[in-house]
Design brief:
Blueprint (H helix, E strand, L loop, with lengths): L1 E2 L10 E8 L2 E10 L4 H9 L8 E5 L2 E5 L1 H16 L3 E6 L5 H9 L15 H38 L7 H11 L4 H23 L7 H40 L2 H7 L4 H40 L3 H11 L2 H27 L5 H33 L2
Helix pairs in contact: 1-2, 2-3, 4-9, 5-9, 6-7, 6-9, 7-9, 7-10, 7-11, 7-12, 9-11, 11-12
Length: 387
């Protein structure tokens, strides 16, 4: 047996010995592997080389102290050996330190593995397309199951006599998703009304039909733009907040604690948010319609010199109550989609901060995709029905 110690000056604090026997490499960490020793231990662990070894054992039974920094260094060494083609047969530490190491390894807190260059060609492209398709189908299937669960829980919360709808949480969600969103929704609706009126007037002026800018503004905003823009704003604002809030609770294990206490997660966390948004979004949509028309009216007054009475008279001739109703009917559906996706992705968060950010982004993207998809479906349906 040939020993080659990688010495640290003070052996009472930390040590890493390397023993080699034929094709077997044995690493023996001892002492205090903590953050205070991490700068020196980093250099020592980086000096470990397989040198032709095919198998390795890490015997840390002599470690007297271990924190997350020391565990990170040991896990990094283990992964670097595996990347070099060395099979790590055993990884031994005192029993009371194993939960820390296992948690860090499961949550991928260890250093990232270098990925190979992505292969190019038809076959890898088809494989990637297939994986993406299966992931999308699995995501849709899981969301459909979550939809069924939320529907059942909502019906029981409303109609079952043994349960009560959590009204305080319900009212709070209406305030947070509706009342506090009025400034941003109003500002963007006003600006979009100005832009739509300006662009419409610029084109219609060529035909001497500037007055029909009012018709374009009224029909376009009430039927489509008001509800669509408001839903997209709420998806980016409230949908992401749902995912981040519930996801943070998952990271802090608060959701697990609530389940242990016997609380119904869907009834406590999901239903108040979904129903609160279903109530708030139609009101926000109506508010956006009014503010958008005001923005267009201001633009028509200064650009086309259309006075307020003329604007209102032309608007009355261009739209009907059905025009307003078409835009408002879609709002509860959009709200349900935003709330459902936001809570669904929040409950799928893993116990690390990176997962919270990733799934929050995914929540917003999925919500906007579903909003536009359903809006297109509504347009086709209303066209078929002649509405």
């Amino acid at each position: 047996m040939r020993n080659r110690p990688l010495a640290i000056p003070d052996e009472t604090l930390a040590d890493l010995r390397v023993e080699r026997r034929q094709n077997i490499l044995r690493l023996i960490p001892t002492g205090e592997w903590n953050v205070g020793q991490s700068p020196r231990l980093d250099l020592v662990t980086r000096a470990v080389r397989p040198d032709g070894a095919r198998q390795a054992d890490i015997d840390g039974s002599g470690v007297t102290e271990l924190d997350s920094a020391g565990a990170w260094l040991l896990l990094r060494t283990k992964r670097e050996l595996e990347q070099a083609g060395v099979q790590v047969r055993s990884f031994v530490l005192p029993q009371h330190y194993m939960p820390l190491v296992q948690t860090m390894e499961e949550e991928h807190i260890a250093p990232p593995v270098r990925h190979a260059v992505r292969p190019r060609g038809v076959v890898p492209f088809l494989e990637g397309t297939g994986r993406g398709t299966m992931h999308a189908l699995g995501q849709g299937y899981a969301m459909l199951g979550f939809l069924g669960r939320v529907t059942v829980e909502a019906i029981e919360a409303v109609f079952a006599p043994r349960r009560e709808l959590p009204l305080p949480a319900f009212v709070k969600q209406i305030e947070e998703t509706g009342l506090t969103a009025l400034p941003i929704v109003g500002l963007l609706a006003f600006l979009i009304g100005v832009v739509l009126a300006y662009q419409g007037a610029d084109q219609l002026r060529r035909f001497g039909a500037e007055i029909f800018t009012v018709d374009l503004l009224g029909v376009g905003f009430l039927r489509e733009l008001g509800g669509l823009v408001t839903a997209i704003i709420v998806a980016g604002r409230s949908g992401s907040a749902f995912t981040a809030f519930i996801g943070t609770m998952r990271v802090n294990e608060e959701v697990d604690a609530m389940e242990t206490m016997g609380l119904n997660i869907a009834e406590v966390l999901v239903i108040p948010r979904v129903l609160g948004l279903v109530i708030a979004l139609p009101l926000l949509t109506f508010y956006a319609d009014v503010v958008g028309l005001i923005g267009g009216m201001v633009m028509c007054y200064f650009d086309l010199h259309i006075t307020v009475p003329v604007f209102l008279r032309e608007l009355q001739q261009a739209i009907t109550f059905k025009t307003l109703l078409v835009g408002l009917i879609k709002a509860p559906v959009f709200a349900f989609l935003i709330g459902l996706v936001g809570c669904f992705e929040g409950l799928r968060v893993e116990r690390n901060a990176e997962s919270v950010g990733r799934l929050t982004t995914r929540s917003v993207v999925e919500s906007i995709f579903l909003i536009i998809t359903f809006d297109a479906g509504f347009s086709v349906l209303f066209s078929i029905l002649g509405i």
